[in-house]
Amino acid sequence: MMESKQILNKLKGRKPGILGEEDFFKVSVLLPLVEKDGETHVLFEVRASHMRRQPNEVCFPGGKLDKNDFDERQCAIRETTEELGIHETDISDVIPLDYMVSAFGTIIYPFVGIIEDIDKLQPNPDEVGEVFTVPLSYLKETEPDRYKIHFEVQPEDGFPFDLIVGGENYNWQTRHMDEYFYSYDGHVIWGLTARILTHFLKVTAIE
């Protein structure tokens, strides 16, 4: 009984997290709102064509959490300033959205914020091939195309089926994920960017 008490005392006050999160790749992104022609727009980047990962794809400013970042919010701001060539003071009202845990071992921390002056942007050509904006009104009024991605379990060769009930006929649980697609002026917004955008539009919708 004494050992049980010691175990419980060690756990008291512990803040629960995501099991195994120390092994996850962690990134923060900013969904930037800008004023253009008297209307609120959402700003997007197109990744530079020479990027190793996802070249020419549409994304939000963001990147990997750095050891020098104070927290996920500061990471989103830092990455935005580096990619768009602006100062931290040019970004205001940075507020967290729901974070996501992807099926591929990544935790994404999205934020929404306001970029005060779009004319100050000086995109970094090492990372950004193009910047464009989409009117928020268009995104609110446009239903994205939706398709499903199915995930299947494929045990590796030599998997010990003899150790589990059901063996090779074990009924693995499978799942699917909705994939969203928005099209605007020749650009296609999909993947995690479209998922974050859809979440933002949902939580900010006026009933």
From TrEMBL:
InterPro entries the UniProt entry points to: CoAse, NUDIX_hydrolase-like_dom_sf, NUDIX_hydrolase_dom
Cofactor: Mg(2+); Mn(2+)
Coiled-coil positions: none
Signal peptide (residue range): none
UniProt KW Transmembrane helix keyword: no
Keyword tags: Hydrolase, Magnesium, Manganese, Metal-binding
Source species, domain of life: Bacteria
GO molecular function annotation: coenzyme A diphosphatase activity; metal ion binding
Record protein name field: 8-oxo-dGTP pyrophosphatase MutT, NUDIX family
Organism: Mesobacillus persicus
